[in-house]
Amino acid sequence: xxxxxxxxxxxxxxxxxxxxxxxxxxxxxxxxxxxxxxxxxxxxxxxxxxxxxxxxxxxxxxxxxxxxxxxxxxxxxxxxxxxxxxxxxxxxxxxxxxxxxxxxxxxxxxxxxxxxxxxxxxxxxxxxxxxxxxxxxxxxxxxxxxxxxxxxxxxxxxxxxxxxxxxxxxxxxxxxxxxxxxxxxxxxxxxxxxxxxxxxxxxxxxxxxxxxxxxxxxxxxxxxxxxxxxxxxxxxxxxxxxxxxxxxxxxxxxxxxxxxxxxxxxxxxxxxxx
Length: 274
Fold this sequence. Notes:
Elements lengths: L1 H20 L11 E7 L4 H13 L6 E5 L2 H7 L5 E4 L13 H21 L2 E5 L3 E3 L4 H8 L5 E5 L10 E8 L3 H16 L14 H12 L3 E3 L8 H5 L13 E3 L6 H10 L6
């Protein structure tokens, strides 16, 4: 009897140690979602900074980074995260609103759609100009159990909900509604390929296309908390007030043009970690 009890106790201890030390914690459903990021060669350092923050909160094991050129692949592949190379002929960096920018953003929608189909898991899409300050796994799990097909960041400049939702941070369920929505946005972009400036308002390119597609497909979309998931306007305009004693879950460094300017703002506000 004592031997059976001792064996049972040993098994319990082993299970506890395995749960505590396994890199991929299957017990917590950490493998039920993928964080998707993509970049061209001009955004390597910005992506590195974002990846560093994911490592700090232990979410980098869920990350898959798609690189659209050799420079990006060679850089990111050394960071110890899963890296995929997608063959393209895109520019290494493109100014906001240009045709090159438009083409790069089309690839984003294509990557998210392919990820939903291939992995059949929740996809958390994140732009490279985002830093993660807190683990968002519980929010992902809450989304999984909800009736929403998508969760998305609001791109309002203040703390009032707007009609403009941000394509820089989106969470998708692997269902047909999300795939159809992405296909609709891709079609909108294709239809405006030669007159892309028509989609320049409201974030431009993919963001405008996604906002139109969400309405056209009547997909069920939830809005991420404006305080916990701030964009560049909400966070940096309130850094000495609301965010002086409150740490959000992510910070999206948009509402500013140019990678160099984004990096300088990150550095100025102690959000540059590499």
